[in-house]
Amino acid sequence: MRDDGRDDGKDDGKDDGTGHGDRAGADAVPGDGRNESPEERADRQWQELVQEIRVAQTGVQILFGFLLTVVFTAQFHGLPAWDKAIYVATVVLASLATGALIGPVAFHRIVKGRRIKPQAVAWASRLTFAGIILLLASMTSALFLVLRVATRNAFAPWLVAGVFTWYLLCWFALPLWARARYTRKR
Fold first, then answer.
1. What does the alpha-carbon distance between residue 136 and residue 94 come to, in Å, rounded to a whole number?
2. Do residues 93 and 84 lie in contact, with contact meaning Cβ atoms separated by under 8 Å?
């Protein structure tokens, strides 16, 4: 099956139920635990990336949608200039995160059928990682704004710092630790 969805008559090496495919691809990477060609690997990686993007996209779109409505509330106009500046920064960050997380979809649409899926996966992965970083900044900024407005005390930055640290642990530190601990030495 070609990248554009049309059958090119070649054996596509579909899974035989063992998770290893029904052929040992000539292009398979030795020792990677899978018998898949670069094209099969790119297809699998693309599907994994799409699933990851769906989770992050939903979160950033909900946040962005709520942020866009805040400016139309009566309470917004009574906020101090500093809080309005935080709001503007938060909206811009959420907008950038939305763009980065939707970017892989547009990228795929434009390059589909050009037989560059491995490169498309690499670029989509970079966009997704940028989107996650921007989502981290958006969520932290939105939390900071909400806690400043809700509490009006000096404790808000400390709460936000704690939540930010939690995000860093969950999103980056734990996966990096697991990667270092469980990745086989080659």
1. 9
2. no
For residue 185, the Cα-to-chain-centroid distance in whole angstroms is 27
Q: What angle do CA 93, 96, 102 make, to 5 degrees?
A: 140
Cα angle for residues 115, 119, 125 (degrees, 5° grid): 135
Predicted TM-score (pTM) of the model is 0.77
Length of the chain: 186
Per-residue pLDDT of the chain (186 residues; tens, 9 = 90+): 444 444 444 444 444 343 444 444 445 455 566 889 888 999 999 999 999 999 898 889 999 999 999 999 999 999 999 999 999 999 999 999 999 999 999 998 999 889 899 999 999 999 999 999 999 999 999 999 999 999 988 899 999 999 999 999 999 999 999 999 999 765
Q: Which of 41, 3, 1, 5 is CA-nearest to residue 21?
A: 41
- SS3 string of the chain? CCCCCCCCCCCCCCCCCCCCCCCCCCCCCCCCCCCCCHHHHHHHHHHHHHHHHHHHHHHHHHHHHHHHHHCCCHHHHCCCHHHHHHHHHHHHHHHHHHHHHHHHHHHHHHHCCCCCHHHHHHHHHHHHHHHHHHHHHHHHHHHHHHHHHHHCCCCHHHHHHHHHHHHHHHHHHHHHHHHHHHCCCC
